Every structure is written in C-alpha cells, then in structure tokens.
Amino acid sequence: MKRILSYSFTMIALVALTASCSNTSYKKTKSGLLYKIMPAAGKDSLVKPNQWLKLNFVQKLNDSLLQTSYGKTPVYVKIPATTPEDYSPMEIFSLMKNGDSAVAVMMIDSLVSKGLMQQMPPFMKKGDKINWGFKVVGVFENDSLYMADQKMEYEKDTPRREKAEAEEMAKMKQQMMERRNAEEMELEKSGEAAKGVQAMEDYLKAKNIAATKVGKGTYVVIKQQGTGTQAADGKFVTVQYSGRKLSNDSTFDSGTFTRKLGQGELISGMEEGISALKEGGKGTLYVPGFRAYGANPQPGSPFKPFEPLIFDVELKSVSDTMAASSDVRPQQPQR
C-alpha cells in the first residue's frame, strides 16, 4: 500500500509539472526538444555512457494521460556513448542522475515537419503536445545488474499484469459474444437461419440419417454417449475431431483441441454438438452454414459463405480446469 501511495503522489506531481510549466522555463536540446530537469538533493554523479537508467514515466497528449509506468514495471534505458539529436527524450537522459525528475515536450508540428510522424493519428491534431514526465529511480553500472533488477521488477509486477490481461481477455470475449449474438439475431430475422435448418433437414432425410437437433440448428448423431461428465458451458473439453464438407464429403481439417465451452472460442455448431455428449462419447455433428463460418469465412479458407460442415468427434475429457492436452483448436484452414 505504501508503494502504491508513493507512486500515486509522484505521478500526480509529474502530471502537475507537465501541465503547469510554461515554455519560458524550459531549455532546448540541439534538435529543439523542450525540457526541464528537477535535480534531486543527493550528490550522485550524472549518469555515464553504457550505464542503465531505471525510470518511471508519465506520457500525456496535452492534458490527457496516454500511458504510465507507475504501478507497473519501470522502463530501463541504456545511455549511449554519443547523445542522439533525434527530438526524443533520449537527448536528456545523459543529463540526469539518480533521483532526478524531468519533463520533456514534443510538439506534434515538429514531429511532422521533421518527418518523425509520417501519419498523424486520428486523436491528434496540429498544435498538440506530447508531454513526458520522468523520475529516475535507479542507475546500474552494467548489463548484468540491469537484467537482475528488471527480472525482479517483472516478477513483482506479475500479479497486476496477469489480472489486467485476464480482464482484457474477458472484455474481448464479451464483445465477441455480443457480436455473435447480434449476428445470430440478424440471421434469424433475415430467414437465413431457417433456410440453413431446412437444407440440413432435407440432406439428412435424403441420406436416411436419424439425427437429433440441438441448440439453434446443429444436428447430432450420437454413436457412443459416453459415461463420464456431461459437457456444458464452463467446462474444459478435450476433443479429437475430423472436419468434412457436406457438399463433397472431403476432409478439410483434423486434430485435437482443448477449450472452455461457452466462451465463443469455437464455431457455434461445434459447441452445440459437443454439449450433447458426455466424456468418452463419440458422434457426428451436422452443422448448417450459419452455425459454422457464416457469411464471411476467413479469407484464404476453403469455405464458401454459409457452407454446411460435418464433424466426427470424440470427447476425450471433460473437466473444470484446463486438461493436459494438445491445445489446438480447429482453425479455418488455409488453401
């Protein structure tokens, strides 16, 4: 908690500095970069070439925060033998020592005129400024010391990073499921779903195949029910599969995958069909095109829009955690 509060106060101070300092209080590097260094009270020497600076930073576009290292992993910068004149903060790092703080300002107009910004991002405009705030929190004499410290900081930051990654993954999955649900509603509204179901029923009748409809349109022939745990949303399933085109019965893919059901990671028809089995079960899934790769198959795949597919599957395992298995899911194969 003490570390978090310390980071917060330092970050607030740097943000305030980048917002309040007027251009007249700044110096300029040879390339024209505006900067100001706030020296620490200590008597440390300026950093030397080939030493490493350990820095925390704040980056803002005008007054809007873009990114920061505070509360995360610090950044490390090796001091070059010759100071570059590249209109970047690298120009001022050799002027700093342990404990120093600094502010640097990059003008968007200057970045464009110097050819350092080929295309201005849509959230930037002429006259904008990129404001940097830096705090030197360590200096290392050589590569081995820097690498040891970086490893320590990386490990320290692992819980936060893993939490952030999990939250981002959950957000992406939620957005994907929302898109899928919206697409399914549109298919039902347009009549494409009913068309796909009818075409599959006609095919099964013509082939004299007794299949059971599950979900919103997948048909399943259970060859062996299985005696283990029932596959269901939230369960990790390991599946051995072989995929065929319904039109010519040609195999387009096969393999084994382990995935969590109900996360939108598999085509809808695969999830529906697998959910009809128990561990140890075997079956054949007949998937209408709207429950397979839909209207827009991945470019380069062998599928036509709304192409129906067949999967022969064997449910190897069902568990509450990721099974020790080949982690390969059925992809839209390349030609």
Average pLDDT rating: 89
Share of helix, binned? 25-40%
Structural class by helix and strand composition: alpha+beta
> Could you give the order of the helices and strands?
HEEEEEEHEHHEEEEHEE
Q: Give the termini distance in whole angstroms.
A: 55 Å
Annotation, overall tally of beta strands: 13
- CATH class membership of the largest domain: Alpha Beta
How many whole angstroms does the radius of gyration measure?
Answer: 29 Å
| CATH architecture classification name of the largest domain | Roll
Number of domain units: 2
Beta-strand portion reads: 25-35%
SS summary, helix count: 5
| CATH topology (fold) name of the largest domain | Chitinase A, domain 3
Largest sheet: 7 strands, antiparallel
Regions with little confidence, pLDDT below 50 for 5+ residues: 1-14, 19-23, 324-335
Shape: elongated
Describe the structure.
The protein is α+β, with helices and mostly antiparallel strands and 335 residues long. It folds into two domains: 2-141, Chitinase A, domain 3, CATH 3.10.50.40; 191-319, Chitinase A, domain 3, CATH 3.10.50. Helices cover 28% and strands 27% of the residues. The longest helix has 48 residues, at 143-190. It is elongated and about 85 Å long. Mean pLDDT is 89; it is low at 1-14, 19-23 and 324-335.
